[in-house]
Amino acid sequence: GGDTLGSNLITGNDSTFSGTSSNWVNFEENSTTAVLSYDGEKLIVTIDGHTSDDYGGAKLEVTSSITAGKTYQVQWDMWRGTFPDVDNWRVQLGNTTVVVASSIPTTRTTYTVYITTTNTNDLFIYNSDCDPTDDGTFFIDNVSLKLVNGNTGTLS
Question: What pLDDT, in 10s, does the model give residues 5-23?
Fold first, then answer.
């Protein structure tokens, strides 16, 4: 048998954004701003980049739900609205960062990553290369965070 996944640790509007609010908050660095809004179907992240290579996106507090040293599956849908086609799309969980894509499309796409945490820091989904011309929207939906049960190995 293979590894099994635990239940989704992110529920309700924090996962499906079917309401008009959630516990997600803006994640921004320096003078880049990120504004979160909702349309009842997805999380809308509006970025206004101001200086080179700043971060902009969204974060969710999950510190009470995760354990350092464990491996988790993070899965979500993400796609661009008016945000330009730039690189450095990342997800971070428990202080471990994974570069997800060099570019994201304008059509809804599902991303899945496995992260072994080093601490119990929050979940972040963001772009790490927001420049002064990088203004616009991108979308997040159907977020899940599941513990990988069993022994996880490393392939080389």
Answer: 999 999 999 999 999 999 9
